[in-house]
Amino acid sequence: MAEIHLTDPHHKFGHTYRRDIWWARPLIIFICLSVFLVYVTWAAFQGNHYTFGPYLSPLYSPEVFGDSPHSWFGAKPGWWPAVLPWSPALLVLWAPGLFRLTCYYYRGTYYRSFWADPPSCTVTEPRKKYRGENSFPLIIQNIHRYFLYIALFFLIFLLYDVWKALWFTRPDTGERSFGIGVGTLVLATNVVLLGGYTLGCHSLRHLAGGFLDRFSGAPIRRSTYRCVSCFNRKHMLWAWMSLFWVMFSDIYIRLCSMGIWHDWQII
Amino acid sequence: MATAIFQIWRGDASGGKFENYSTEVSEGMVVLDAVHQIQAESANDLAVRWNCKAGKCGSCSAEINGVPKLMCMTRLSELSLNKPVLLQPMKAFPLIRDLVTDVSWNFRVKKKIKKFKPRTPDAKDGTWRMAQQDIDRVQEFHKCIECFLCQDVCHVLREHQLHDEFIGPRLLVHVAALEMHPLDVEDRLAAVKKTGGIGYCNITKCCTAVCPEGITITDNAIIPLKERVADRFYDPVKRLLRFLFAKH
Ligand code: SF4
Ligand code: SF4
Ligand code: FES
Question: Is residue A7 part of a domain?
Fold first, then answer.
């Protein structure tokens, strides 16, 4: 039996007494996330122009199988079903994709912008039934921590890509020498931003010490917890900056590879 | 002195409507001042709850231009007075009259949450020792003034009316304050999952946005609790390890 009886009648979708342009934020987020999703899906299925010199697009990293020199185990595997389109990105992109999909920040954001659940605070929703993350399917969001573990490995791979982006092969002699190109900085920025985002993850915060009730007597744990909490306070900002930069890094390498942009070598 | 119009909800559980009141406003006034002035001038029977006028008792919660706020902490200078200022009671609780709602549900639910249970005293005289660094986290939660604005704005309560299944952000903050307390040894995780309905929260952060005490409700209380619940109930590896190493 309901313990509480409210008097205010239900309103229709979008109703609110708010006076501000409450719809602007969810709309902007909807547009930005949609642009990202469309671009990344398109880029992932291209299967070409994802490397340029020592640079490897973060959407394709690590290149487990593929035709570029960055590939770990050689060309497209024979067991890949012929009916499926092939691109090296398809083998890896699910991991960072699921990490973001189950991220606490993005969850709250796309529930609002894509699901209008609610569209904004004190704005009426389109549907009356609500289950939240209390039952299937959204209860699965609780395994976010596993995608975090994978994302931490990806940070290492991306860091290695930056290291490789410091070594250029001279076309005339074939010699490898140290150098820094704009692309190197693009990839380095990408790792910094992704690092800021990943290291501020709520699941990492829990793992780093959030599960404890007492920190005294565990100074290293306490410092780690504080450090993660510090990144966590700006999790939204890191999430957006890293999202944008991952896309930009791919665009940069793609356009250089297509000969449209020129990679300027600084050193 | 300027004149401002206030559109105030008048009525009770059986129904009501907005009524317009105009009153003189001056610099430094807050919404509650204007309501008191209207009460004195033209609506002696207007019901409004207030106490401290300092944002500390949590009594004067209402919806101002559609946003849950404390009337005593909302300056008129923050609002546009070109249009009538809309004043309504909180939507997530049963209306008593005009701007006053019955928030007793919160207290009934709070009573069902397991009480603070400290470990055995650290010293012979029956006292405990706590390090400041251990209590830092829960001190944020102790700032709560129980204004219930977060409960009011939470769509699970206000829109879906799941009061029987979800205890709401305020009470999740209360559970977090107890669960993370360095002295407490009680276990509330099963309860916060089942009867507390923490899974209903979809972390859309409206509660954090309205909290007049600036408590980071979602990030610091609800999500850490969700993570603890995930540890206990959803993490397959942790469950397996607990099973393997449990004292059978
Ligand atoms: S974050 Fe959760 S508790 Fe807070 S308003 Fe949103 S659904 Fe309610
Ligand atoms: S958590 Fe904040 S908004 Fe909620 S009841 Fe406490 S003070 Fe009010
Ligand atoms: S009158 Fe006490 S909080 Fe407003």
Answer: no
